[in-house]
Write a structure and sequence with these properties.
alpha/beta; 6-stranded mixed beta sheet; 6 helices
């Protein structure tokens, strides 16, 4: 198996580009796939820089309906029009970052929905014996408060995003179980609980942002949530690879608690 980060927020190896976005290349016995495509075509340039041929990709998994995970899909589809693109049926809705100062559209390019290779899903979906997708995570255990500024626009009304457009990939290979998420907007602990309810065990590895990054200062409440999340994750034997929306400061706080169980990934990093 191979898992390589193709783009992330921080400068990495081999002169790889970096941006506010996320994309992974995954190779299993049966498949070559992408999980997300970053905010632009930077992941394509990085793949070429790393000597990877994206025409061999047979599927793309879109973790959720935000531009920084779907921005490279249209350019990828020009180069590889055969790869199936799996997304939840509401991932194309109108998603915004909205507070008292800003009202910014953060959804995907609507042209993506018209691509012939799009496969719309409504909830959990078994692709084959290697790959399983689940969604509709519930619960608010240590829920990242930054999510409260993320909205879905319905006509002239903004409602709280419930993140039902978010889906999570489980890779099952040679007795190893790997959970891949995008931003874990529903809360990494709630996602882990849903995974456990399906499999009756924790994953061996989790690859995910934790959506704890902030532009403003971190309050005492923020730090407490970060620390409590790390302590809960410490109770497992899972190894966590994170980056993107986690933020470097939250990572440092969590690293003190999780130690070798937590690894920061950068553009171009090889995970497996």
């Amino acid at each position: 198996m191979k898992i390589i980060n193709l783009v992330e927020n921080t400068k990495g190896k081999n002169n790889c580009l970096f941006e506010h976005g996320l994309s992974f290349y995954v190779e299993t016995k049966r498949h070559k796939l992408l999980v997300d495509t970053g905010a632009t075509d930077a992941f394509i340039k990085n793949a070429e820089n790393l000597g990877m041929d994206l025409t061999g990709i047979d599927m793309v998994i879109l973790s959720h309906g935000h531009y920084d995970h779907a921005g490279g899909i249209l350019e990828f589809a020009k180069r590889n029009p055969k790869a199936a693109i799996y997304m939840q049926s509401n991932a194309g809705d109108a998603y915004y970052h909205k507070n008292g100062q800003i009202e910014k559209y953060i959804g995907i390019d609507k042209r993506i929905i018209e691509l012939p290779q799009i496969v719309m899903l409504d909830g959990d979906f078994r692709i084959d014996s290697e790959l399983f997708l689940f969604s509709r995570v519930e619960g608010e255990k240590l829920f990242p408060e930054g999510n409260l500024e993320l909205k879905c626009r319905q006509g002239d009304i903004f409602i709280q995003d419930d993140f039902s457009h978010e889906q999570y990939l489980v890779i099952e290979q040679e007795g190893q179980y790997i959970l891949v998420s995008g931003c874990a907007h529903t809360g990494i602990l709630n996602i882990m609980e849903r995974y456990h309810s399906i499999y009756g065990r924790n994953p061996d590895m989790v690859i995910s942002g934790f959506h704890m990054r902030k532009k403003a200062d971190y309050s005492e409440k923020d730090v407490t949530l970060i620390e409590e999340t790390a302590r809960e994750l410490k109770k497992t034997e899972t190894v966590f690879y994170t980056g993107h929306c986690t933020g470097e400061y939250p990572y440092e706080v969590m690293k003190k608690i999780l130690g070798e169980q937590l690894v920061y990934i950068h553009s171009g990093d090889v995970i497996l």
